[in-house]
Design goal:
about 500 residues, alpha+beta, Nucleotidyltransferase, domain 5, about 25% strand, globular, FGGY_Carb_Kinase, kinase activity
């Protein structure tokens, strides 16, 4: 790894490539060491859903990658491309033979056929093991899928290996089986500290000894692009392949929120918080990845978010509502904007449902209450993280579709009492380009040079004071329903 001085001298000569393997498509981005995007490419993916089943053909991942790569690199000199890193959905698995041919359709991250296996794992693996790993499996997690495969795919496992989505593609790029990174393998039961598969979990899974891939920490070089892969992708043969991280971590990398106390709040369909802490953070609603720099990256995902607007205001002109809504004044009612059933963060309550306290004064007032309700829940997230020993600093990087609404982003800054910063480029593929560069120059130096803040929203204390009563009222109502623990209520309403 070169030092910071070398990073400071690096300019636009070197090119770093990031790959994002999503559910609906593959995206590839090429960026320079100063964060200038030279090319983008994408290609769609098909999937199959039927009841709890959600599958995809892994061969599509490769063909889509080839298409997206060639588009992204069409105007990029091949000799300039130094390294490539890949992110993927967390918890997607495929069984492949040692020639990297899929033996079964891929089990996607939200395939729920292994729900019973997940419950069995919680019963049979001691709680101390999950605490050591910093995770507590949920029904859709990959470790449950491993148990399901152990029962239902013994023939395939006898002659194959289980790969995560990113592993399959990086291995295809190298033309040989490469190790898995502990970020993509975290929900498979990997130990992120020792980069091993815990004996206690292996014993319960009952998988053949060869069935799980070797593990490495993210951010290091694990192989090189083969000549055969270079011919079809446009990547140069010999370009280094860097061990990646999940798509959520890739989004965090793209924001540059990589120092202790830095956080990225993603307001998309749901509200996701990811940040950096000195120690591992773990409870029922938060789990931690181990970053390339040895720091912990805790995170949690709420079940509320901008997606509630689709169900609460179908067909509405949201831009017009934004323009007319008095978001800096308390609404006539207080909303807990949960579209479905169940909450995951900042508290866990399977029976949680959305509610409204009081009556809205009209449709516009109801809209205001929903946007304020999401901001209030975001403030509860910040309080919860602080109670776990993962404090949030004075500024937060914000991304997701919600930031397209400047009034809503300003409201969130007011309620949180923090400066909100919107990065210029927020795609997970860009985060992987940052990670690829960091393997040469270091994480902090690469992020400092490549990530740029596009807009800032400063908190208005007088607005925050006016809205504080609504926040406290929501916190009290959640506690009264038995969903918000008393300790979190005390932390949330302190001061």
């Amino acid at each position: 790894m070169r030092d910071n001085a070398a990073a400071a001298q690096a300019g636009d000569d070197d090119v770093w490539v990031g790959v994002d393997l999503g559910t609906q498509g593959v995206k590839v981005l090429a960026a320079t060491g100063t964060g200038r995007v030279l090319g983008r490419g994408s290609a769609p993916l098909d999937d199959h859903r039927a009841g709890p089943r959600h599958e995809q053909d892994p061969e599509q991942w490769w063909t889509a990658l080839v298409t997206a790569c060639r588009t992204a690199l069409a105007e990029v000199p091949a000799a300039a491309v130094r390294r490539v890193a890949v992110c993927a959905t967390s918890g997607t698995l495929v069984v492949a033979d040692h020639d990297l041919r899929p033996l079964l359709p891929a089990l996607m991250y939200d395939d729920l056929r292994a729900a019973d296996d997940g419950a069995d794992l919680l019963d049979r693996v001691d709680e101390s093991v999950w605490r050591r790993l910093g995770v507590r499996p949920q029904p859709s997690w990959a470790v449950a899928k491993l148990a399901w495969l152990g029962r239902n795919a013994r023939g395939e496992l006898a002659r194959g290996v289980v790969l995560h989505q990113a592993d399959f593609v990086t291995s295809r790029l190298a033309g040989e089986l490469l190790p898995s990174d502990t970020s993509h393998a975290l929900k498979s039961g990997a130990d992120p500290v020792s980069a091993t598969w815990p004996d206690e979990i292996r014993a319960v899974l009952g998988l053949p000894e060869h069935a799980l891939p070797r593990l490495v920490r993210p951010g290091g070089v694990i192989g090189e692009v083969s000549r055969a892969a270079a011919e079809v992708t446009g990547l140069p043969a010999g370009a280094a392949i860097v061990a990646g991280m999940t798509d959520g971590c890739a989004s965090q990398l793209a924001t540059g929120a990589l120092t202790v106390g830095s956080w990225n709040s993603v307001l998309g369909t749901t509200l996701v918080f990811k940040g950096v802490a000195e120690r591992q953070v773990f409870d029922t609603s938060v789990y931690s990845h181990l970053g390339p720099d040895g720091r912990w990256w805790p995170g949690g995902a709420s079940s509320t978010g901008a997606g509630v607007l689709t169900t609460a205001f179908p067909g509405a002109d949201l831009a017009a509502l934004d323009r007319d809504a008095p978001l800096d004044e308390p609404a006539g009612c207080v909303s807990y904007p949960l579209a479905g059933r169940g909450e995951r963060f900042p508290f866990v309550a399977a029976d949680a449902e959305g509610f409204t306290l009081g009556q809205p004064r009209g449709e516009l007032d109801r809209y205001v209450s929903v946007l304020q309700g999401v901001a209030y829940l975001e403030r509860l997230c910040v309080a919860h993280l602080g109670s776990l020993g993962a404090p949030v600093g004075e500024s937060i990087r914000v991304t997701g579709g919600g930031v397209r609404s400047a009034p809503w982003t300003q409201l969130r800054a007011d309620v949180l009492g923090r400066r909100l910063e919107v990065p210029a480029v927020t795609e997970p593929a860009f985060g992987m380009a940052v990670l690829a560069a960091s393997s040469e120059y270091g994480l902090a130096a690469s992020a400092e040079r490549m990530v740029r803040v596009d807009r800032e929203f400063l908190p208005r204390p007088e607005v925050g004071d006016r809205l504080a009563a609504g926040y406290h009222r929501l916190a009290d109502a959640l506690a009264q329903r038995g969903w918000l623990p008393p300790t979190l209520l005390a932390e949330a309403t302190a001061g």
